[in-house]
Please model this.
Amino acid sequence: VESSEANLRWANNSLTTNGAMRSRQVVVVSFVDGGAGMAAGTVLVDCTSGDPASSRRIAARLAERGIAFLDAPVSGGVVGAEQGALTVMVGGDEATLARVRPALERFAKKIVTCGPVGAGHALKAVNNALLAVHVWSTAEGLAALERAGVRADVALDVINASSGRSNASMNLFPERVLTRAFPRTFRLALLDKDVGIAAEVAREQRVPAPMLQLTAELFTVARRELGELADHVEAVQLVERWAGVTIGASAIAASMPAASPEPALPPLDAAAQADATLEQPL
Amino acid sequence: VESSEANLRWANNSLTTNGAMRSRQVVVVSFVDGGAGMAAGTVLVDCTSGDPASSRRIAARLAERGIAFLDAPVSGGVVGAEQGALTVMVGGDEATLARVRPALERFAKKIVTCGPVGAGHALKAVNNALLAVHVWSTAEGLAALERAGVRADVALDVINASSGRSNASMNLFPERVLTRAFPRTFRLALLDKDVGIAAEVAREQRVPAPMLQLTAELFTVARRELGELADHVEAVQLVERWAGVTIGASAIAASMPAASPEPALPPLDAAAQADATLEQPL
Amino acid sequence: VESSEANLRWANNSLTTNGAMRSRQVVVVSFVDGGAGMAAGTVLVDCTSGDPASSRRIAARLAERGIAFLDAPVSGGVVGAEQGALTVMVGGDEATLARVRPALERFAKKIVTCGPVGAGHALKAVNNALLAVHVWSTAEGLAALERAGVRADVALDVINASSGRSNASMNLFPERVLTRAFPRTFRLALLDKDVGIAAEVAREQRVPAPMLQLTAELFTVARRELGELADHVEAVQLVERWAGVTIGASAIAASMPAASPEPALPPLDAAAQADATLEQPL
Amino acid sequence: VESSEANLRWANNSLTTNGAMRSRQVVVVSFVDGGAGMAAGTVLVDCTSGDPASSRRIAARLAERGIAFLDAPVSGGVVGAEQGALTVMVGGDEATLARVRPALERFAKKIVTCGPVGAGHALKAVNNALLAVHVWSTAEGLAALERAGVRADVALDVINASSGRSNASMNLFPERVLTRAFPRTFRLALLDKDVGIAAEVAREQRVPAPMLQLTAELFTVARRELGELADHVEAVQLVERWAGVTIGASAIAASMPAASPEPALPPLDAAAQADATLEQPL
Model:
């Protein structure tokens, strides 16, 4: 379907995901063929969560044929999509954006011009990478506290009134982790992809980013261990598995008499110590 | 000065820091001598930012002499202290807390019982470690975006309306980094200490915490490189130095014609490539 | 049993481990009771793989009662123990060592004086931590090469003639990984303990050591995932599991017609891409 | 210059590096123009240290014009080049290699067929990445030991007779670090490039490689801090700077009376502790 305004390639389709019907959604059509069927003068708007280097390559190839390109990932989730209240992060030049702005405004409440082609993708990837950082690091901290005898609900109350708070600690952990609900709203596999893109942006730009790189590795591990269908917050369960503790467990136990925190791993016994002398590889 | 309520050791002193006069502040007295002058029945309340293992050791020794111990680090900053509106995180048993609660209520608005001795220290350390994670990871992301041509103010606007937001992105970066103000309100050296404590809590509890451990290392490096007087947010400047970019620079440049993003490092030139053949250590 | 030379506490016992009978082995006796039964003038020699901070604490307490302490972990493995050809790394003062040297020489071929109390333990821990670094990093590299179509035996041939070689690449990988033998000679749990000690030495000394700290975390994860009985080289199998590849697999496949390297994970399909638009948490 | 055997593009040039005259050296000519002047039937042999993804792209483009491609990085250093005793790691198909083998044998003592196009580059990058891992991790360990009072020469003696040894500990540290010679034989900037390539191979192959990724970041930091001319072993000096210690310092001090190990950083003083209460950002 082409919009009359600017030959914008989009699809006012009604995709069904998770049983929900949604409309007013822009997706990119026929990307695989490199825009083979598009006429010169078309503007291709990529609303997926792509990587900037590919976006720049695609834009350069399309430009040879007179086709303009914008990367325009969106935020706002399912609710925003249904209400036409998404935020669009646009990478590309202003003149091209002007041609498709009316089409974007059908579903976007806010249109942010981020920079050159790829800038929209880069910004979305970095935002999601920070989400990943917060989910994982908060899980590490709460798992350690849980084992040290600090209830996770108490810890979150304090953190959320303090300097260590984040969207993850304020919303995801109370609603999804402490409740053990872990609804599947955004796949871990997709977050893994986004963190990887952010890590690649940093490397491509030669910005040492040890934390983003480590986070990329940890989420790839989590994806392997938890599978393609896991929700992104389920990464917390891998941290719990490695820690041998369930975040929030002592809060539940607190309602029972003589509750005690998760016992620590038993110390290596004397036999193991003696063995060490014999086994050592030094 | 001893409180009449419970032999609480505290000091209603008037410390002057940063030129401000403050009262109604509890600090621990004569810790170095192991509470040598304290009578049995005293409660020692440690309001500093200590480490749980030491707290437990101290508590055990004091208990031999009939002295009770609570760790009770506070939050709320200078303003909270002046207004008697601090939050106190208490580690120790409820009965002991009951004895000193009236004294604590003189300066605390909220008293949170966290768990056994050390729990207050552990919780405070983890909160501060998450702050450190957020400051550093947000700096990495914004530095990469800056080099990719995305203005930091635009990036923060999007992130702060999205899933990647944290206290650091919502408050510290707009107020202190984009403005280049970097006021000295909380020393990097102290945050380094706190992250180290949180990392030790995780290790002691046998919780694999690669992100907290890495953050501990990075802040120790930052402390070495930036000195004992640097503010904790100045860690961002080390990320910038390593990245060869100033976060927010393109926002300033945007007001000039023909602004361009920070140039990437030049590629290794052909000579260097040829050299590689000769130099290689393989 | 006390040696006549210097009241050295040791046990000329015959421990049976892995079905082998061994003698001439020094182990520390009755450590748990803090040397309660030892007379003043005794020298306590700790030949286990301990941590320096504990060693210093123990030494200080023993000194109050006139008992000297040396940490003296050994290397050389089972064969060295059987042949009386171990290397002993001694922490403690020279005068104390002089008193027990004859006893140590019964089983040690080489006695190295490392520094003050704890120095022997520190050196042994660092050596073992480097072993752990080499095992894990070589596994990462070979797993990546395997998936890129480079046979592990070819890769090891080149690496072992080049600058990237280590004891791990020269001995452990050819003998234990490529053969899939994975004999159980030194437990992963003990290596995890040693890496943790090395990481703590670095932190205690305020030496930023991001690689040692990360290695400590990875081996703790491996211990959790692989269990208390796994051999230290089995950590390679966790790297393989995360990578979705078996190191050496293409070497085996090479003997069959039309061998192909391990296929990469399938790319996220178009449906997943479309989903991304709906699911995204930004 | 074209070889008569197989239209191999090479240059029998006499490059002068480090004041040495060398001949019999194959380098790639006119890469920048994509082999514009080459005839169909030519084989392009890339002996530099490149990245596999680029190699595959180049090979695909050249193939369209009937030009074959091999990646063939070499090892053996300056001495090997002078003596015609290099090892060549070849990526590409056997038939193509057969055509250029005589030309390669002029300077190569050993020709290793590694796998498909890019395999030679991948293997060389992984070898060099392991070198980087060993240099950095050994520096961390020795810096910690130095501060703990263990002389680096003693530590290296033990490690090099034990399981933690590597090419770095056996050759580079004794010859270049303990002597403080730090000769400039292979630039840090080039090693940084190689580690980055290895890290990208792992990511492209979806192999979680936290240690290689971290090493890539650390060497990029080191390159920024130490400059384009620094030797790769000078990375040790950055570890020393962060640690506040010189590896080998106590060995030198040992020749003087009353030598003592490098003092630890002073503990935070009481004033700083008290300050913490006021400054804290929680």
About this structure: The longest strand of chain D covers residues 108-115. The first helix of chain D runs from residue 52 to 64. Chain D touches chain C through 71 residues (CB under 8 Å).
